[in-house]
């Protein structure tokens, strides 16, 4: 709960700082310090230190799993601020407010990761998405950004409606919002309850951009300013998944037989659509948008499989996917040319950056020795034990092979093709390179010793 | 300890090689590392051959049930010897090539070696999988950066092929792990499994596809000639001399003892594919004008015979010692051939590389008359070519002979058909190899070949090593047979499916 209080406080703080007219450097520093504090406070809470013992009246309760997830999210958020904080200044004039909105989103993360009442889930999801609508449209003079924002808002509002309807039906069936009691002791669901369950399933599938509810994703990710796309595609998606898993594991786990097959179908569809469409992309930004859909398919496997392995895998997936994608986006934001050809010859010009990007791409593709491999490994293992698991898993790995195709196109551009005449690459500062190096090291270390992160789940 | 060293030396050597930028330094480091690994293997084969030195076990991914355990059995020892010889030859062979970015080149080469060592020595399935990929990634970069004109597309095809195979194998591994009582990836745990026939029937394919793509078995071979042709020859040496053996070693270690019944059910199909591969590849090899492609197809044919022999070992002996004896001898032939074919093809590539660099062409039609202008080179080439045909007194002969023996004693009703057709492969191999020799070394010299070809000291050294090994093991193959005797006896008992049928 430390993070909730601190994030809310820091969000307000950032808002007021914008009034005081400080320089960009100061604002950025304050934001980075704030995010660092969020991370440290979560670590402290894992050791049992609480700033203030919040009495939540059984609306939400933090558990070990939520804390580990939160520390992954805030840790990645910290790295994200270090890497991309500077680039937010190029989006528009409300520099401080952007940070403020992100801090508010972190408040939403806490609720999504700790709810014990369906209302809190709804509140958490809304706190996360409403600032996102604003961030998506923050490039005010750009038509694409406006379009993306409106599209996201309309479709998002619709899916929120679905979720509310679902919650209402569940309340109608059981007369309670508590996740512990929504399924009765008998375990036999009424039609009303099932209706509510599936409405919530669809709505959450929309939030994590699982097919066939993914249509908003490419346009919104492409239209939004690249720095914010990076944030949406990683931390927000991962947090939404964690909430998804929490709801269907804790509340609806005993009804697994009714929805599991649908989760599997959605996972397969997401994997196929995400990967196959990504193959045809020319712009790296759109490619990453589709790749995020594809990766969501793999995370859906965790929901499909369910169990300890899936929960561990979700943590590892959250870390590996966020780290790698944030790193790639942070470089992409500074590139002049967003097409794959724009990366031609980067390895000659800047071997260090290219090497780090290569590690990130290999991790996304799921090559052993990187965290991405073990994350996928856990998901496959979880899914294999489920009903029809073998079919789902075979499709999943074949799609992973397809994903190698498009990730490696970027790799090939960097390493094996010569830069075009007059191509300009941005200069990367030493500090930026150091943070990127840290990310690459984290990915490799987690790929060899995932226990370093996962043992926090238990100790 | 030896096993761990064989993994660590190239890993650290590769890291060190990667760093310095001074030219010439990298190749010396690589040579040092290659010599050190070879010395390690030889020490392990002579002074420290007790199992104690060849085993290593440490905690690793505990929650996943995987341990970092390496164990060198006779096959592992033999293959690590081949690997270190291969890397040494590759470094020697490229000694005078002015490689651009030589530190990256040799660094990747050594990492590839580290990966292959893990594959050959791992007794933990997940570790084996890591090694499998660790060997592939450097190979991908090596071929794509330093290869020929069409390198990017060709290498990518190679990568995707192998990757598809390996992820399917990963599913198989995870599935087997879920069946073990304590969720372990240890080889022994896998071998103790009793998997019902209905599951083995499809589990077989998850594994077989991965290994068949690597070997390659017809019809999964289409990546191979292109990749061999487009890769820099130094890398091709390691690909065909050593990496291809990964597929066979994996079949021997991870399929036959674990999926005995599945292998038995499908063995006819696999032998049939292999025999088709032998004939098909040999016929294409006859028509090749490109030296590298010719060697590539010849390699498919040779590997086809080994796969056919291996799958003919599958069957039930009813505990009859005679049958077990046949199987054992056949298996020893396979091990011998794994080693010999590696040595021979390494020599072949050294020669092909020399020709290409000297004359700037690989086309047989543009060569000729070298016998007069480059006699030393001709002698080396002829000896290695004879080994490629498996003439008696070369190292390939005993291995191939024992493999035919295994095929003859197979339990398949079609064994005679298989035997005769596979035997045709020997004749065809004589045709294409001698045809190649004729076109390169005899006939009229042309402008290019008039001035002959001189071998440098490093190349002479490398080729002498190859020829020496060819002759030594050609005359005295008993050394290898004795060495693999105990291991093979245990192994054929382990793959015998009589124990399953009794239940």
Task: Please give a structural write-up.
The complex is a heterodimer of chains A (459) and B (503). Chain A has 459 residues and is mainly alpha-helical. Chain A has 18 helices and no strands. Chain A has one domain. With 503 residues, chain B is mostly helical. Chain B is 74% helix and 2% strand. Chain B has 20 helices and 2 strands. Chain B is globular and about 70 Å long. At the A-B interface, helix 15 and helix 16 of A face helix 5 and helix 6 of B.
Descriptive key words:
heterodimer, A: 459 residues, globular, B: 503 residues, 20 helices, 74% helix
Largest sheet: spatial strand order of chain B: 1-2
Name the beta content range of chain B. Answer: under 5%
Low-confidence stretches of chain A: none
* Largest sheet entry of chain B: 2 strands, antiparallel
Range of helix content of chain A: over 70%
Please, what is the oligomeric state?
heterodimer
Count every helix of chain B, treating DSSP H or I runs of 4 or more residues as helices.
Answer: 20
What is the approximate shape of chain A? globular
Number of strands of chain B: 2
Structural class of chain A: mainly alpha
What fraction of residues of chain A sit in β-strands? under 5%
Largest interface: A-B, 29 and 27 residues
Order of helices and strands of chain B: HHEEHHHHHHHHHHHHHHHHHH
Number of helices, counting only DSSP H or I runs of 4 residues or more of chain A: 18
Report the sheet with the most strands of chain A, covering strand number, pairing sense and barrel closure: none
